Amino acid sequence: MRAVRGLVAHQLSAAWRGWVTLAVLVGLAAGAVLGAVAGARRTDSAYPRFLQVSKASDVLVSPAGSGLSGYYAAVARLPGVSAIAPVAGIQALPAGPNGRPDIGATVFAPADGRLGHVLEIPKLLAGRLPLPDRPGEIAVDQIGARALHVHVGSRLAMAAFPANAPPTGQVFRRLSERVVGVIVTRGSVLPVTELDKVPVIMASTALLHGLGVRYVGYDGAYVKLRPGTPTNVLGRQAQSLARRFPGTGGKVFVGDESTQAGTIERAIRPEAVTLALFALVVAITALLVVGQVASRLLFAASVDHPALAALGMTRRQLTAAGLAEVGAAAMAGAVLAAGVAVAGSPLMPIGPARVAEPGPGVSVDVPVLVIGSAATVALLLARAALPAWRLASTGYRGEREAAAAAGGRGSAVTRWLAAAGAPVTATTGARLALEPGRGRTTVPVRSAIAGTALSIAAVAAAFTFGANLLHLVGTPLLYGKTWDVAVDLQFGTVTPQATARLLRGVPGVSGWTFGTHGTVGIGGDLVPAIGIAGGRGAVANPALLDGRPPRSAHEIVLGTSVLRRIGRHLGQSVPVTINGRRRLARIVGRAVFPDFGQGSFTPTDLGEGAEMVASVFAPPGRPQYNFVLLRFSPGPRRAADIASFERSMTAFCATAGLPTCVVRDQRPNGVTNYARIDGTPEVLAGVLAVLGLAVLGQLAVLWGRRRRRDFAILKALGLVRRQVSLITAWQVTTLTGFALLAGLPLGIAAGRWTWALFAAGLGISADAVTPVRVAAVMVPAVILLANAVAFWPGRTTARLSPAGVLRAE
User: Fold this and answer.
1) Strand locations in 349-449, DSSP E?
2) Using one digit for the tens of pLDDT, what is the confidence trace for 505-536?
3) Which helix (H) or strand (E) holds 672?
4) Cβ neighbours of residue 250 under 8 Å, at least 6 residues apart?
5) Closest by alpha carbon to 193, among 492, 528, 490, 600?
6) 3-state secondary structure string, 701-728?
7) What does pTM read for this prediction?
8) In sequence order, what are the residues at sequence separation of 6 or more whose Cβ sits closer than 8 angstroms to the Cβ of residue 453?
9) CB 776 within 8 A of CB 783
10) Theoretical Cys-Cys bridge with 141: which of 188, 377, 576, 594, CB 3.0 to 4.6 Å?
């Protein structure tokens, strides 16, 4: 052991620059990996931690009328309720220069002192919350602060109007409010409902009381449930309780806040997965690159092995010494990596999770740092074990064995090129590219081909996945939309007769379908739902993956995620709760749902949603519907007809109290959020391409150094500089060609397989597209880039002096 320690100390001190370089490379590469892994964990957990810190509610209860006259106090006494915080929506909007309401916004105030203190505590970005007894104070969410150009200390002119008067009416009450805080609410982290997408203003309880009930447009209550209380049970109880309070209108809307939370978490998860994928690919590629650096250092140290073997050191001792040298550098690099990861932690989390993060700044993820540092040392030792063992054998191989090992017939490709009469530059380049050599001329050809093929496969997989992501974002049928335009009145209604009058004579309209918004209680959850009824022409249903549309009140179509959550499949029956009443519904189909949202209630989303017939949700009597789905005749005028229809509906939408009610883009939140990161696969592909080129560049330098004797002999035999440069080009082209042959089809297959898994998780069709053009462009692009990287090493090799190299040999 003393001999091993002495050898390790000597080698580390003699070649300390190389070992320090290795440690720095390990630290930077592993630091990036650990930082990305810790960032992925922090990104993925940011919103759940935000909800925990903010004491988020489980359910939002909102009567059709008002619950401020004792209904919420009765809800608070229900056995499953642990806390409740009533809220009232104030009919007020930010005012323009003329004093009239100018910008859409949601203005609310706590009905008592519980909202913002007991439940739904917003995150403060600046300032504080309005004091309950200060009518002139407001807080604005970060969306509103940007849209209204306000900050803490700003004055905001507002106009309040009675609940029964539209904002364009003449009766206004002018307000001048001081912004005392900029906040983040659970909905403004990543807006998924229609109300979350507009500025949110939190007023004081004193302003609510000062304005009075005439200026209250709606009210509701955030409810925290006791552990183990199902949401749909609370929904039935709240609905039953409403019948005892006439002021509620006898009907209650119950929103499952966990549905919204799940939607936001799913929207944030792709960015966490992207970081994790980045960490994985960087780790694999860095292991190849850094492993080659470690092998070169071990090779340089192996020149003394014959003498050490003659002095009595065993092969096992020489191997142990080599691994100890690598281990020392790896441990130093692991310590540096931990520091790099901690130093980079303020950059995390990324995307919307950064807004939600309750504890921004420096973060120390101890499990990631400890496990990651240990894995860094273990992986680098494992990578260096085989080279260390092989190099340790050089002291025990006789000259005859070495000469025999140096022989061989060469590669089949080289023999084929020679037989075909290929130029000497092509034949020699292929031989040097595919034959690793022996002894001092050994080049890690196999690992270089494997590393390059891996990089090509990863790039091809990233491009394939990205192509399918773009295909999803730009293909409405894939996210469930089988119609062209929706007229959505939100909480308003329209009759079939009014619809016929409205659409009479509209050019291009070929048919329409009626629908209603609703919720369905299934398995303890409240699922956003729609009801569909025929209008004119074929019925437009969300795109079906399996089965058929519902035909009666006892049939239901569900999204893939809902089916997976309740553990049911087509043909089975499931108990559902609608408007407080239970019934048994048979599952007849599985569908993909575009965005159907109503107010502040969580909308449908890809695999999240339910479809039934409209009569289930509509009140008895004359049929009335919340939305109409329109189809336009195909042809060259289709786009112009849709645009003309949208313009013609402005007056109708205004009568419904909506700035617009024509919806052309119904991409669900899942698709919208993936559209926001549609460049991520390309960025990742670029990073992987750079890493792959780094492997090639390092190999080109290594080729030039270890094959100096071969090139010197070739120049001594008469080859000129241009021919030597061509040999280098053929080397790189041959290696890259083999890497493309293996990596390109593997990457495309991996990309399609990854997309199939991803699509299955989203609950959409798993059919994948293959980016044939991208694959065709990659072949010449990779070869050209590889030759560009190898140009300078090849030029340096072409300039070497044969006499000087052979004299040194």
Assistant:
1) none
2) 889 999 999 999 998 988 778 899 999 999 99
3) helix 669-676
4) 64, 242, 243
5) 600
6) HHHHHHCHHHHHHHHHCCCCHHHHHHHH
7) 0.72
8) 738, 739, 740, 742, 743, 746
9) no
10) 188
